[in-house]
Amino acid sequence: MIRDFETGDEAALKAVIRESGLFSIEELEAFDAMIEAHVPGASADFWCVEAEGAGAAWTAPEPMSGDVWNLRFLAVRTDARRRGLGRALVRAAAEGARQRGGRLLLVETGSGPDLERARALYIATGFAEQGRIADYYAPGEAKVIFALPLRLESA
Fold it and tell me: Per residue in 29-46, pLDDT tens?
């Protein structure tokens, strides 16, 4: 079951972020500070968690874009991978952004072989690749940008 982040979920959320292996010590400290400062329902950001603490996602509005949101974080504990939780978290994050007025959801990831499964997940959940910025993360490691429409524009 995936639900909105609630007070009391902080430790499980931090554990998922740490275990993901995606972030440096400095980035982990920044996540810790954001989580401690986050008051559920009090900001535009949307965090969702798997009820047993196996995964989490975070979406936030893009500054100066109006109704574009960004899936800034998605992770599933290693012992819970390959069971559809990533897809469910992407769907929940997209729905959370849509319910908050989002028209378009972006996600950015790297081009390296270690992120091949992440890119496949985004494509499988309806995202389309929009572009690449060469050598963004490191020489030879591009930033890959995906977008998912959240609602149809009225004619």
Answer: 888 888 877 776 667 788
